[in-house]
Design brief:
Length: 65
């Protein structure tokens, strides 16, 4: 039987859309929902991109399994 892995880039690419700017809290909530949906890989962004990205990734890593 073939297995399909789900890879999501919402948190990384979502903010590339004009007028979209997630807060750290938004990112954590979205990540938790993706986890509940069974997404295998969540690409949360790039920690080096900004202090906000770093903090968001740090907070996500505290709550995600």
């Amino acid at each position: 039987m073939r297995q399909v892995k789900l890879f999501d880039t919402t948190l990384r690419d979502g903010e590339q859309t004009p007028r979209v700017n997630f807060t750290i809290e938004d990112k954590v909530k979205i990540a938790l929902q993706l986890e509940k949906l069974g997404v295998d890989v969540i690409e949360g962004g790039f920690a080096i991109a900004s202090p906000k990205s770093y903090e968001a990734l740090k907070e996500m890593s505290k709550v995600l399994k």
